[in-house]
From TrEMBL:
Signal peptide segment: none
UniProt main location, coarse: membrane
Stretch list, region Disordered: 191-214
Domain named Tripartite ATP-independent periplasmic transporters DctQ component: residues: 30-159
Gene Ontology CC: one annotated term: plasma membrane
Function statement: Part of the tripartite ATP-independent periplasmic (TRAP) transport system.
InterPro entries: DctQ, TRAP_DctQ
Subcellular location: Cell inner membrane
Family in the record: Belongs to the TRAP transporter small permease family.
Membrane topology per record: Multi-pass membrane protein
Protein name stated in the entry: TRAP transporter small permease protein
Lineage: Bacteria, Pseudomonadati, Pseudomonadota, Alphaproteobacteria, Hyphomicrobiales
Membrane-spanning residues: 53-71, 92-114, 134-151
Top-level taxon: Bacteria
């Protein structure tokens, strides 16, 4: 299990590196969009290439940051249901959901997208709009995004399995949206634990939060 956890943490590092790098594209999108608008208004000059570049950058942000969002536990959940369940039940839902839904879906998309991207690249496909960009980089973003998501899904499966079956402490970050929901519930029900969580349990001999040191 230690080797699998090291593999999972390696995937996490790659995902974090890509996600943080892609996050800077938000600034690039803003600058491109603002610059295009200013040039169009002041000089009455515009180009489909600038518009399509905005679409490409948005696609890069959405697809390449999806794995980082999963790793940071920031994907949207039905919190009113999730927070009413015990920690172990949520772990089992994540574990089974990754096996049954996430990993097969990501693998299917990779299998379908590979020839789609290859055909676009070999044919030199370009936009049908005048002055538009080449198409294959945008399609490659789809493939790259699902590859990263598949790898991160494997990492999450390993970590969730380690918590359920090997007594590892849960290292999953509490996403900002889930933390806010948990805080709202604590205000409504002060005696209830935040997010409906149970006292964390770790491997034998592991000191957990709130446990006095012996």
């Amino acid at each position: 299990m230690s080797a699998l956890m090291a593999f999972a943490r390696g995937i996490d590092r790659v995902t974090t590196f890509v996600g943080r790098g892609v996050s800077w594209l938000v600034l690039v999108v803003v600058l491109v969009s603002a610059g295009n608008a200013v040039i169009r208004k002041l000089f009455d000059i515009s180009s489909n290439a600038w518009l399509e570049l905005q679409w490409y950058l948005f696609g890069a942000i959405f697809m390449l940051a999806a794995a980082w969002t999963l790793q940071r536990n920031e994907h949207i959940r039905v919190d009113i249901v999730s927070n009413s369940l015990s920690k172990r039940v949520r772990d089992w839902i994540d574990f089974v959901g990754h096996i049954v839904i996430l990993l097969p879906f990501a693998a299917l998309m990779i299998w379908l997208l590979w020839p789609y991207v290859l055909q676009s690249f070999t044919s030199g496909e370009r936009s049908g709009n005048a002055g538009g960009l080449i198409i294959w980089p945008a399609k490659a973003l789809l493939l790259g995004g699902f590859l990263l998501l598949l790898l991160q899904g494997i990492s999450e499966l390993i970590k969730r399995g380690a918590v359920l079956f090997a007594g590892y402490p849960d290292e999953t970050p509490q996403g900002a949206s889930h933390a806010a929901e948990a805080m709202e519930l604590s205000v409504l029900a002060p005696d209830a634990p935040l997010g409906g969580t149970e006292k964390p349990t770790g491997a034998p001999g592991t000191l957990t939060s709130g446990e006095p040191r012996r």
